[in-house]
Amino acid sequence: MCLVAVLLDHGLGEPRRWHPVVGFGNLAARVEQRLNSRPGSVARGALGLGLLTVPFLVLVWLVTLWLPEPFSWLLEVILLWLTISLRGLAEHGRAVAMPLGQGNLEAAREAVGRIVSRNPKTLSEAGIATAATESMLENGADAVFASLSWFVIAGLPGLLLHRMVNTLDAMWGYRNERFLHFGRFAARLDDVMNWIPARLTAATYALVGKTSLAWQCWRRQGGQWESPNAGPVMASGAGALGVSLGGPAPYSEGMRERPVLGGGPEPTADTIEAAIALVYRGVALWVAVLFAIALLDLT
């Protein structure tokens, strides 16, 4: 099933119109406008999350009970395809790597500004490559490996709950006046749901990259990052690629000092491609392991 979903994603990519994640995001924006009064409230944020997730989970559960086996299997494949976004990840990364490799920094800055929250206007060539590489590694964990993890752990309900919570964290998880309290529940739940998948992702990056360096960086540097889940992923990924990530980065509020992760030279356009390849090798490993387990269950 995972193999079929990955092949669909590779062949078709994401729907250009009527993507369910985009539709869910639009609905979440309207709920936030109604519930997020000033000052924000953790309870209202939790209520908003419940209103957005529970009806969908109940509906999917009822549909899967009602559908006969071939159609329920097809529904699972389609929803898994719509949530993993592996090809979309690669397309966004290559949209940065191509102009960067050609020396077109303005086009590269514009492209990287679409996938990261930092201010791209002042980014150097290495800064652009760093931002895009970090995005590939972190979104590989969030949008690919975590979705596969929760599908294996809890089927469609687990997959959909993770994807919805992750989307709400991306929309509401800011530490500013508007979302500091309202988005706290979504952010903490996302941390909890990503704890195991993040460490599985870090282990995967180590296995399919520069293994020894990745393990060392994970062990020594993973806990230095602000996010408890992104730290292991980014440290292991940087080590697996043999480059240095992190360091100072410009954001709208000013320069943010971040720990240096990994070991080696600064990233380049080639590093972005290497990060994409790392994620693909990790997915191939997961699909192979899951396929082997399924064959053993049949025997």
UniProtKB/TrEMBL annotation:
<keyword id="KW-0169">Cobalamin biosynthesis</keyword>
<dbReference type="Pfam" id="PF03186">
    <property type="entry name" value="CobD_Cbib"/>
</dbReference>
<keyword id="KW-1003">Cell membrane</keyword>
<comment type="function">
    <text>Converts cobyric acid to cobinamide by the addition of aminopropanol on the F carboxylic group.</text>
</comment>
<keyword id="KW-0812">Transmembrane</keyword>
<feature type="transmembrane region" description="Helical">
    <location>
        <begin position="274"/>
        <end position="296"/>
    </location>
</feature>
<protein>
    <recommendedName>
        <fullName>Cobalamin biosynthesis protein CobD</fullName>
    </recommendedName>
</protein>
<keyword id="KW-0472">Membrane</keyword>
<feature type="transmembrane region" description="Helical">
    <location>
        <begin position="143"/>
        <end position="165"/>
    </location>
</feature>
<dbReference type="GO" id="GO:0005886">
    <property type="term" value="C:plasma membrane"/>
</dbReference>
<keyword id="KW-1133">Transmembrane helix</keyword>
<comment type="similarity">
    <text>Belongs to the CobD/CbiB family.</text>
</comment>
<comment type="pathway">
    <text>Cofactor biosynthesis; adenosylcobalamin biosynthesis.</text>
</comment>
<dbReference type="GO" id="GO:0048472">
    <property type="term" value="F:threonine-phosphate decarboxylase activity"/>
</dbReference>
<dbReference type="GO" id="GO:0009236">
    <property type="term" value="P:cobalamin biosynthetic process"/>
</dbReference>
<dbReference type="GO" id="GO:0015420">
    <property type="term" value="F:ABC-type vitamin B12 transporter activity"/>
</dbReference>
<feature type="transmembrane region" description="Helical">
    <location>
        <begin position="46"/>
        <end position="67"/>
    </location>
</feature>
<dbReference type="InterPro" id="IPR004485">
    <property type="entry name" value="Cobalamin_biosynth_CobD/CbiB"/>
</dbReference>
